[in-house]
Amino acid sequence: MYVNLQANLLPPLGDDEPYSRPLHRIKHDLPKPKCLKRFKLRTVVPWMGRGATRSMLHHDRHDTLYVLLRGRKRFRVFPPSDALKLMPVHPPLKIRPSGEIEYATAVDHEHLLTQGEFSHFVRTDLGAASPFPAKAEDLRASGLEVELRPGQAFFLPGHWFHEVESIGEGDSGPHIAVGFDVERPDDLDQRTLKVRRQAQAAKRRRRRKRAREL
């Protein structure tokens, strides 16, 4: 069993209310983490289950801080630059400097939500029954793996592909997590390019300094 309660599938409490109805009564027990102080909180989503569950390999469009309360979670993540080899449902057209993926096909996400199909889900299932076993094995080996214990958190940037395995206490017990989804800044591409230029300039300065010391 695996349950999550998305705020956009429930009657809204207000345009600027990120806590869904099931969490609204305990919102003061789940305050916005201090590390997200400069970000606008989009939604707060509970994730609950029992035993072992595994999500499909996919990406979200927003940044998320996952906080694990009970059980264990194992993330296997891939950067946006791996989009082509991951075989998304719709082919990627462009990957922006910030990592945001644009798809070749215009996607009506509300329609796909009701149809159970997502542009950001991939065909390359990494599970035991993968239709691409050889490719899945290669991808599984190349992904970055992160395991969380209770009290730990993991920040996942938007458009990073991820598969999440959740394991309950004692393998069959409950696992509970809360996801804090935040809005991505509108100027993220410009910020990313600026940081890259600064890093490249710093690298050139270090090279010149080493050359003078020789």
From TrEMBL:
Biased composition (Basic residues): 193-214
Residue spans crossing the bilayer: none
Positions of region (Disordered): 189-214
Segments forming domain JmjC: 19-199
InterPro entries tied to this protein: Cupin_8, JmjC_dom
Listed PANTHER family: HYPOXIA-INDUCIBLE FACTOR 1 ALPHA INHIBITOR-RELATED (PTHR12461), JMJC DOMAIN-CONTAINING PROTEIN 4 (PTHR12461:SF100)
Protein known as: JmjC domain-containing protein
Organism this protein belongs to: Alexandrium catenella
